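>> received
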Amino acid sequence: MGQNQNGTPVCDLLATLNPGTPVNEVFVNGESEPADYFASVDLNTNLAYFVQEDDDLLIADCHKIDMIEIET
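>> returned
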């Protein structure tokens, strides 16, 4: 993980989450995508990784993530 040169609030938030943090869904460009948990974020590429229920990876540009529903 590197230094976020062009940070957005969502990218900055993801950088503070622990891998395995449970999430319900991720909204990318206004579209809802189901996710089970946060895996990681690479601030050099701005790619955020989430694991879905079927163990598929959801990979999104953190600059394009509008909202993340985190389980509490």
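>> The longest strand covers residues 23-28.
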